[in-house]
Specification:
CATH architecture: Alpha-Beta Barrel
Order of helices and strands: EHEHEHEHEHEHEHEHH
Shape: globular
Oligomer: single chain
Number of strands: 8
CATH topology: TIM Barrel
Number of domains: 1
Strand order of the largest sheet: 1-2-3-4-5-6-7-8
Length: 260
């Protein structure tokens, strides 16, 4: 079996990042999307892409936590310059978080919309974060036209209910589940994981955060995405092999050239 971790962040310790990738490769996680979100995370993602070009897809962006630090034009200009120098697979992560960053809601929406426009111009999918911002996320998506073919992107680390998942899929987005789906109190999320159809399903770690059961207490890493797949296999009444196959195929279609 081969697995595709569609969302992993890498830190500023190159040795630790490369060691984690080697462990993932040894455990059958043969593809990973290294995701940015800040200047430091973007640089770390580029670094691991350079070391493992055949195994790493690259997503670059400035996430909701950056909205308070500079105006949108500065971020997009910086992102454009980065994208001209690298083999970019996706724009992001971007999106909205009104739980931790509610005070910058307007700036977040502006920055999110700018990332969506850039993804459309570049013909790349977008990696979206949304937390306690369902209505605003849908509104920004609807107000920002998408002219590409196929899926527009993915909502990563999904934590919503079936209704929200359906609304996102209507807007041509895939749904990705992280280690949260394995948590003891995540029954509602497991219902969503059973609801999403095969052709919209992705898996991720969101490393180094959200370590899945049974690895709780350790820093998360791409090798642990296998435990997310095992949980999805149980709640969808199928095999881990099937989850590995469909999520890898979906990730390859989304990140590896569908709309370029």
């Amino acid at each position: 079996m081969n697995f595709f971790d569609t969302h992993a962040h890498f830190g500023l310790n190159p040795g630790a990042s490369l060691a984690a990738i080697r462990r993932a490769l040894a455990d059958g996680v043969t593809r990973m999307t290294a995701v940015g979100g800040s200047r430091d995370l973007n640089a770390a993602a580029i670094a691991v892409k350079q070391e493992f070009p055949e195994h790493i897809e690259l997503a670059l962006g400035f996430d909701r936590s950056q909205a308070k630090d500079a105006d949108t034009d500065v971020f997009i200009d910086t992102l454009n310059k980065l994208c001209s120098r690298v083999d970019l697979s996706a724009v992001g992560e971007t999106g909205l978080d009104f739980h931790y960053e509610a005070g910058t809601a307007a700036a977040q929406c502006e920055l999110f919309a700018a990332h969506l426009r850039l993804a459309d111009e570049l013909r790349r999918p977008v990696v979206i974060h949304t937390r306690e911002a369902n209505e605003a996320t849908l509104r920004v998506l609807d107000q920002t036209p998408w002219y590409g073919e196929g899926l527009r992107g993915v909502v990563h680390c999904f934590t919503g209910d079936c209704d929200f998942a359906e609304q996102l899929m209507e807007r041509r987005l895939a749904i990705s589940f992280s280690g949260i789906v394995t948590f003891r109190n995540a029954d509602q999320l497991r219902k969503s994981a059973a609801f999403v159809p095969d052709n919209r399903l992705l898996i991720e770690t969101d490393s180094p955060y959200l370590t899945p059961v049974p690895k709780r207490g350790r820093e998360n890493e791409p090798a642990f995405v296998v435990h997310v797949a095992e949980c999805l296999a149980r709640v969808r009444n199928t095999t881990v092999e099937h989850i590995a196959q469909i999520t890898t195929a979906n990730a390859e279609q989304l990140f590896c050239g569908q709309i370029r």
